[in-house]
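Internal QA ticket QA-208
Title: Verify multi-chain structure generation after dependency bump
Assignee: T.L.

Test input:
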Amino acid sequence: MRIKLEHVTKQFPSRNKKSKDIVTAADDLCFEIPDGKLVSLLGPSGCGKSTALNLICGLLSPTSGKIFFDDDDVTDLPPEKRGVGMVFQSYALYPHLNVRKNIMFPLQNFKGEDRLSKEEMLKKVDEAAEIVQIKELMDRKPKEMSGGQQQRVAIARALVKRPRVLLLDEPLSNLDARLRIQTREEIRRIQKETKITTVFVTHDQEEAMSISDFIIVMKNGLVHQIGAPQEVYDDPANLFVAKFLGTPPINVFNGKISNGYLYIGEDAVMKIKTEAADGDVYVGVRPEGFILKNDGKLHCELKNVEVMGRDTSIVSSNKASVDAAVIRSIISSEERDLINGDKVCFDLKPYKVFIFGKDDEKRIAYEVEGESK
Amino acid sequence: MKTSGLKAWLYLLPAIVFLGIFMVYPLIDVLIYSLEEGYNSASGESYGIGLYNYSYVLHDPYFLQAVKNTFIIVVITVPLSTAIALLISLALSSVPKIKELYQTIFFLPYVTNTLAVGLVFMIMFKKTPYSDGLINVLIKAFGGNTVDFIEGPYWAKMFVMCFYTLWIVMPFKILILTSALASVDDTYYKAAKIDGTSRFRMFTLITLPMISPMIFYLIITGFIGAFKAYSDEVAIFGADLNSAGMNTIVGYVYDKLYGDGGGYPSFASAAALILFVIVFTITCINLLISKKSSSV
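Actual output:
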């Protein structure tokens, strides 16, 4: 099912009772989630992604704007009438009920014509348990299971009533690193199997990149960019998106555009063509955008070489670097032999270099040697 | 190995000494008193050992009356006070804005002096040749017949007693239950709401199981407290509870020690041990039930 948000805004009164400030948790959200896709709401904590999720499921109602499921306006519908299934960060499994009863819980709420017989319920519970592969755990209590198993039960409980939308609120953040990767693959598999429209809230960009059909990047209640994972990574709309996606993070430098050249600090690194006026800019370079070269145009002080096996990361410093004094560049292991002395020089791969305006931090388009970017 | 064992005992010594002198020794002594027949507290001598004290107590009509009174108070006030306290706590948690104000009001009885409150109750319910008392004025206003609740029929006195007991024990239960309700994670209700759970089912399937340990705690301590009731009775009916017919088991023990018919530590000890056996049995039954229901 398609979900559409039209100019949805949610405001809360300030926590501090004395101040009359209003907190805008979701600011004029407009986006559409196509049928059967898995979409991530990605952003740092407090960016409004959980608010957006609660608005979609109906636990919160918007201050203004409309929410549509397909063509139905569900803005004023209570959560139980929207047909959504939700998985909470803490799983919210009822501790005194065993797995079977937990999964059956939503079915027992059906009233009137929808009411199911005990056999039908058990059949549906078995089907849901089958999808998440926990059939052998049906008689356990939640506390007798690992975090990953509890997670599966929570997903089964959300799926058992065949919801039109599955909502996942930071579902992996209580799991350890290895289990997290396993479970996210599992969620992807379940989503593909059931073809259910899924919204996945996370603050972990790697999670969002690996699992989603597309990503909605949010900050301070605003949507900053919507796009497929690779697209958001390769073509960030602004400095925040560029910084938020990618590990290790993008390297940001103070630079300038002058006479058709892009400068980082004092080094003219590229000859570019752009419509933007000459002036100061931010230059973002992905760690994999550096080419180690003895006569490279960007000059840095070598700090450290970290060998990772598959590749090598060079930690160096440059005065023009903005956030941290260090810049991190990843090169293949073979190139390591080129490093000698305490200076390193790089050329830059143009499509890994982004220019952002100094004031609004928006992307500035430019071309280099005919290659458009 | 040996020195560390010695060290452990040395660390435990203060606790053992204090517990031994002030808990274990008195308990054993009460048992001995209760078995010594014809014990004379002045000479410290007795005729011999036997169960005569128990037999005397169990055949004493005052004691039997006290047991009956105690049981009636326990059976009426413990379930009723817990149920009403739960209702009030639920009501409180559904009005978050004025919750604190009401919580304070409901908690007031807990911090007031029970003897003073008992006096006020007595004045409200008492009927004298000069005045009917507030309650009787109200009864009259609704067209009923006046009753002397303090020196009148047994059921009237028992009504006042239970009413007063409820009033005294409720605040603590409300306090415990409101905090128990507040400690239930809100996410459970959110999850249940998304699944369209009715309020009744939310209460019986989520709230009750989650706060059941606290409810059992209140019932067990409620039973123990009600069995040991004494001062509340004195507050309303005065020190001579036997003639008022409103004595309790603890009151009987006190009377046998210090009251007008007092000076019989052996009888008092026997009565105290009978009370101990009753409380112990009921507590065990309670614990068994709570274990069973929490493992379902």
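Spot checks passed. Strands of chain B lie at 36-37, 48-49.
Status: verified.
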